[in-house]
Every structure is written in structure tokens, then in C-alpha cells.
Amino acid sequence: MAQSEAVTRIKRGVRDTSTGRATLPVVLAGTFMVVLDFFIVNVAIPSMQLELRADAAQIEFVVAGYGLAYACGLITAGRLGDIYGRRRLYLLGLTLFTLASLACGLAPNAAVLVAARVVQGVAAAVLSPQVLTILGLAYTGAQRARAFNAYGMVLALASVGGQLIGGLLIAADPAGLGWRTCFLINVPIGLVALLLTPRVVPESTVDGAVRLDVTGVVLVTLGLVAIVLPLVEGRERGWPAWAWACLAASVPLLALFVRSQHRRSARGESPLVDLALFGHRTFRVGMLAVICFYSGLASFFLVLALYLQRGRGLGALGSGLEFTVMGLGFFVASFAARPIAARLGARALVVGAALLLAGQVLLAVTVARQGVGGSLAAFAPALLIDGAGLGMVMAPLNSLVLAGLPARLAGAASGVLTTTMQLGNSLGVALIGLVFYARLRPSVAESYAQALTASLYYLIALAALLAVSLVVLARKRPATAG
């Protein structure tokens, strides 16, 4: 059967039953672990490096190895879910992630930790695209909107709360495990989710998706590695020649990938990514919005944490407590987003982008005035507004981008969306690193304020571009914000 004729088959429905209601927390448990491990590790690095006697390169790959494996496997994993079943791939990813988390927590040396982190990244890539597809197929209408809103709230809890959770775990130091608890916390969560998944998560596949496009897998993986690897490692290594060569090579590799997908579609074969996705205007413009939003997310958390911990001398726990102010704004706005969206439709996202922009401007003004002194309470209004903007945009944006797509494109769309989110994170961190470290003199505390202020100018520009792209989306979709 040609891909154009393929349909999604849900082998066991879960709508309007207690089992269906249990689907949401079980699949979001996987999302929580994956996102938490992207952010929580930053808190653990100093004690981790000391105990394992790791060198700088090894510590870099504790972070970069996870992000690289994660970003580069998402599109392929989304397609594998179409072929072999989304629940089956979710279970596989969840099992690998739980085992890899245990290996990270028990790692006797840095080499084992780096290897386990790469396996974690692969597992995260297998798991993540299945979540959005499962939610999109298991729920409809208002239930789907609530499911995507919960997905966004879990993303925020894991990312905004990652530093606080890590700081609390390290401060509590249960059983003398220290930084290892940042990984071991995943084990009980993963085991419970593994027990419940076969009972409450529906299986679904795409009829006609019978063969994996191996050529496409090789080309897209090489192309993504060529982009992500220099982004996560280039600045730390002084942008060597290989980094620029990789970025240059990514263009022909991805061009060959697109050409191969066109050819397979023309022959009636199943491509890795059905390029019909990009024929949908909402999806196409939505990808620009996703890149802008996620390029500003992880990069903002990074520079704010550096300012708080190194510029103002806060510990991991104190820094994490500052992030809870943003989290409060996020959760209040998330609950308000649905009634606002019911009135404004997709224009509600524009309101969220405007709040995000206002929060960044106010924070830039506050940092410029305060420097590295004064009361931290002065930052609260800006962080609350910024968090509210995040809450108004994050979940509805994902929902809007996927809205209206045929079910047969669900797996490919989820893979492309989650890949774009990770590429946005990597690109944002790389670009903001150039801005932040260009203004930083590590021996001068006040320079952290100057570096953060310069970084906020970059983030303000991103927020403005996000707002413009959302205006374009809202112009044609007045009533479809989740």
C-alpha cells in the first residue's frame, strides 16, 4: 500500500474509559524523565567531576553525548513507531532509559558515565516521539487539548524545576549517594511506568508502513550529527576546522535526504519523512515558531543559572529556588491558557509571546540596574511575567502545530517536531554561548551581569521573531489554539 493510502490503526481504543484516563500520566512519566535529565545534570557536574576525577572533555560529553544521541534519533524513532507500534517503541525506550539511568547512578568512572549517558540519549529519542503520537490518537477534542496542556506543564516542571530538584537531591544526600540520586530518581519512576504501560496505553501502527527507509535513516542521521555535534562542542573547543566542515557537510547531506524522500514518495514507497507534512501551512510556519521558542528556552536557563551561581554566588539550591518564581508564573498561566484560548483561539499564543517579550525586556532592565548586587526580589516581577509567557505558549504551540494533520502523518510529524525542539535547544545554547562568553571575564563578578544583559538582547530578538511567526499562524487559524 502506498503511503498516500496508509491509515493509522488503533488496535485497542482507550477513549472515555478509566484506562484511557490513565494513559496520560503513564506516557508523561517518560517525558518527565527525558526532559529532567537534560537539565538536572548541570547541578550535578561539580561534584560529579570531583568524585570521578573526570577531565573537561569527559564532563562536556556527559552533557553533549546525551543531547547529540537524543536529537539525532528522533525522526527515525518516530517512523519506527509507525511501523512497529507506538506503545512497543515507548516500552523499548522506557526500558533502555531506566536501565541507562541505573548505569549512570552506579558508574564507577567517567568513561562508563559517558557511555551510559549516550545510551540514555538513544533511549530518549526512541521514547519521545511516541508520546505525542499516542496522545494525539488516544484523545480527541477537549480531551486532546487537556492532554497537550498537561504535556506542556510536564515539560516546564522538568525543565524549570530541574535545577531545584537536583539541588534538593544533592542537599538531602540520601544514603550518601550525592549526585548519583539525580540519575537514580528515574529508576522507580521508570519501573512503575513499565508495569502500567501494557495495561493502559493503546497500541497503534500505520497500515502500509512495512519497510524502514534505511537510506533515509543514514542520510538524516549523518546530516543531523553534522549540525548538532559542532553546535554542542564547537565553542568549548574554539570552533576548530572540523566543526565548520561538519556544518558545511550538513547541507548536501540533508539535501540528499530530501531528494531521496521525494523519490520514494514518487515510487509509491514509504519514506522516512512524508514531505506532505510541509504542504500543511500551519505545520510549516509552526516549525519556525518552534525553532524560535526552543532556541530561547534552554539558552535562557543556562545563562540565568550562570549569572545566579557564579555571578551572585548562589548554590545549586538557591539558584533553583529563583527558578521556582518562573515556574509559578508558568503554572498560573497554563491554567488560564485554556479559557483564554477558548475566547481568542490561536491569538492566545500571540498574547503569550508578548508576555515573554515583556518579561525579557523587564529582566534586561533589572539586571542592568542591579548588576550582581541588590535584592533578588527585584527579579521576581520579570521572572513571573516570563514564566507566564512560557505557560501561554509551550503546550498550545505543540498542539497547534500538530492540529489538522492526517493520522497517517502523526508519527512523522511527532518525530520532526521533537527533532526541531532539540535542534532549537542546541542552536540556542551555541548562539547564546557566543554572546555570553564574548562579554564575560570570569575573574570579574560584575561581568556576569554584563554578559547576561547582552544575552537578553539576543533573547528579546528571538521573542519578537516568535511573536511575528505566531501572528502569521493566528491570521489563518483564529480558533485552534489548544
TrEMBL record:
The keyword Cell inner membrane does not apply. GO terms for molecular function: transmembrane transporter activity. The chain crosses the membrane at residues 21-45, 57-77, 89-112, 118-139, 151-171, 177-197, 209-229, 241-258, 285-308, 314-336, 348-368, 374-397, 409-436, 456-474. SUPFAM superfamilies: MFS general substrate transporter. PROSITE patterns: MFS (PS50850). Residues 23-479 form the Major facilitator superfamily (MFS) profile domain. This is Drug resistance transporter, EmrB/QacA subfamily. It comes from the Bacteria. The keyword Chaperone does not apply. PANTHER family: ACTINORHODIN TRANSPORTER-RELATED, MAJOR FACILITATOR SUPERFAMILY MULTIDRUG TRANSPORTER MFSC. One of its GO terms (cellular component) is plasma membrane. It is a multi-pass membrane protein. It comes from Micromonospora matsumotoense. It is found in: Cell membrane. Keywords: Cell membrane, Membrane, Transmembrane, Transmembrane helix, Transport. InterPro entries: EmrB-like, MFS, MFS_dom, MFS_trans_sf.
